[in-house]
Amino acid sequence: MYDDEELSAIREAKESWEAATLDPTLDRHGERKSRFATVSNREVDRLYTPEDVADLDYDEDLGFPGEEPYTRGVYPTMYRGRTWTMRQFAGFGTAEETNERFRYLIDEGQTGLSTAFDMPSLMGIDSDDKMSLGEVGKEGVAVDTLRDMEVLFDGIDLAEVSTSFTINPSAPVIYAMYVALADRRGVPREELRGTLQNDMLKEFIAQKEWVIPPEPSLDLVTDTIEFAVAETPKFKPISVSGYHIREAGSTAVQELAFTLADGFAYVEACLDRGLDVDQFAPQLSFFFNSHNSLFEEVAKFRAARRIYATVMDEWYGAEADASKQLKFHTQTAGQSLTAQQPLNNVARVTIQALAGVLGGTQSLHTNSFDEALALPSEQAVRVALRTQQIIAEESGAADIVDPLGGSFAVESLTDETEAEAMAYIEEIREMGDGSVRDGVLRGIDQGYFHREIQESAYEYQERVDDGEETVVGVNAYEIDEDTRPDLLKVDETTRERQLDRLESVKAERDDDAVAASLDDLRDAVAAGENVMPEIVTAVKAYATMGEIMEVFEAEHGAYRERIGVA
Q: Known NCBIfam families for this protein (predicted)?
């Protein structure tokens, strides 16, 4: 972007500035710290100039919004056309209580629903299982059968709302329930909109919720993608998630690299299944964390789009624009929230949300200030949603497409992030002898990802403990008073009410129809066929979550036994 003569003049001017202006100031006052770095411990320079982006090619590296390489955004008008989808994670207690929260959020202006499930539902077991004791409805909504899904979306038009489901091992069952509910209500499947997290690779890397081993889990994810391409073309059957990788303690670069590697592994699994890349790739979505270092996060999002467009084109032969456009949801960093002085979290979340917007996210969840202490209260949820609305309507951040594009600092950080993330992806590909899919599976088996994340998490905590990393209210600016707000408490009768409904469903359903549907599912699993049609049939017969997932455990083995959960 600059010729050699211009760069030489800028270099000379910088040297003159350093000698005449900077050095005397440093001699008199110094700087606050001897070293400045991001949350990920990436050192940042004092000043960035055109020299730092001397190799930047505008057409190849930046381009224009809505055109390759999509560094500046996947849409030409971005938020000038419409703002990002505003989602707030909601789910607790029974389906009735969560339905009430859904309606509240819609009334407050939320534009998309995001569903949290309790631990038994996440792990594919029923509320009456002995392992569920003490967990029913505690950190999300309990869903055992299609009856719960019917109550959960009572009075909500499935054709009008976009719904996200944050669930993984048992994601195919929840997806089948949503499809079955649409069928019952006469909503065409092709009209369903939403996202299923359904990212099992990141579970084995970071979050550690699983039922069956990695390879059959990957096959099951591929079944959902194949089914979605044919049946629910507006619904995203997977949200490849870096959020939990970052929450486990990774750096921003590791989050980006491991997430994209997982995404490319799913691409290869679909290609092995015989699917055409331009058929399924437009239905892939991603999910990133947004942490406190604003410029690092913006650079991460921009680098993600550029890497994805290049790799989908050059490695996998994608031709359609939609196949090369990385579209993603963002959630502010739960890891950054503090139980101490929780109102400080409002400021943290605002910065993180702004980073997501400046980085070009398609969907955003803002954490509530009380989430380090409990499930969010209505007041905290409203403040979190209002934070997004203020950014959208009052800040001006949504009025300019890629407003930080061209910043010497942001472009330099974007280039560095891209290079370091690609180095990781290439390493993973080499581990798989040229296959990212095999490299990810091998990395999981050999503990590669765990070691990388663990080292980063340990190094960060050391910096906090040493006071090198400031966490306001925790290791600096502390106060000696109780700052806890009023907290949401889950009704202690939740379990009894959920068990009553489950017992009622089991008493009323056709047991022969349930048994027949589960037999058909067993046959499909054993034959290696796509299991989604059989799961839809089973949930329509009111087979339970646990009954369906037991079929997969019987065929593939209960992976949870390897870690002593069962």
A: acid_CoA_mut_N
Q: What is the length of the chain?
A: 566
Together in a domain, 417 and 544: no
Can you read off the two tokens belonging to residue 341? 């002085």
Tally of structural domains, the chain? 2
Contact 317, 276 (CB under 8 A): no
Dist. CA 102–CA 155, nearest whole Å:
10
Q: In terms of domains, do 462 and 316 share one?
A: yes
Could you tell me if 336 and 397 are in contact, meaning their C-beta atoms sit under 8 angstroms apart? no
Residue 70 lies in a domain: no
> Mean pLDDT in the chain?
94
Whether 23 is covered by a domain: the verdict is no
Q: Residue 445 falls within a domain, yes or no?
A: yes
Beta bridge mates, 162:
193
- Please, which pLDDT band fits residue 488 given cuts at 50, 70 and 90? low
Q: Which two tokens stand for residue 61?
A: 């590296």
pLDDT at 566 over 50: no
Reading the block at residue 446, the tokens are 């050999």
| Per-position DSSP letters for 226-283, written without gaps between them | HHHHHH-TTEESEEEE-HHHHHTT--HHHHHHHHHHHHHHHHHHHHHTT--HHHHGGG
Query: Which of 102, 95, 150 is CA-nearest to residue 118?
Result: 95
Neighbours of 181 (CB within 10 A): 19
Residues 492 and 466 in one domain: no
Q: How far is CA 420 from CA 210, 260, 415, 486, 527, in A?
A: 30, 13, 9, 44, 42
**Edge-first strand listing for the sheet containing 363-365:** 235-236, 193-196, 162-166, 112-116, 85-90, 363-365, 328-332, 284-290, 238-241
392 within a domain of the structure (yes/no): yes
Instruction: Give the count of beta carbons closer than 10 Å to the beta carbon of residue 59.
Output: 10
The overall pTM is greater than 0.90: yes
Residue with tokens 């490849």: 240
Domain that holds residue 551: 86-159+174-195+486-561
451, 477, 503 - which closes a domain: 477
Considering the domain architecture, whether residues 394 and 417 belong to the same structural domain is answered as yes
Q: Based on the fold, state whether residues 417 and 281 are members of the same structural domain.
A: yes
Answer positive or negative: Cα dihedral of 439, 444, 447, 451.
positive
